[in-house]
Amino acid sequence: GERVLARIEAVAAEEKCKDVKAKILRARHAGPAIVMETEDRHMEAVILGIPYRRRFGSCSLGSTATYVFNNASCQVIFWRERAPAPLFA
Prior knowledge:
The protein is α+β, with helices and mostly antiparallel strands. It has a domain at 23-80: 3-Layer(aba) Sandwich (Rossmann fold). The protein is 37% helix and 18% strand. The chain has three helices and four strands. The strands form two sheets. The chain has a two-stranded parallel sheet. Helix 2 (30-40) runs parallel beside helix 3. It starts with a helix and ends in a 9-residue tail after the last strand. The mean pLDDT is 86.
């Protein structure tokens, strides 16, 4: 976890992005905690990593990502992991 955060901040510095702070939040309910953090820190954007999931033929965001998207006042950017390689080619 901490190595991933350090890497995010290093990439942001390489790209000359200002004021990028990566943080792991620990909370009972992630969605409200993320929204509160964006408001407390007056964030311009939040980037959420989401797993690759398909349900009923389409991608599914999940409850946390949906909550943040619907309630955060800043920009919400989703970073979805790659689709898994097919089992049989």
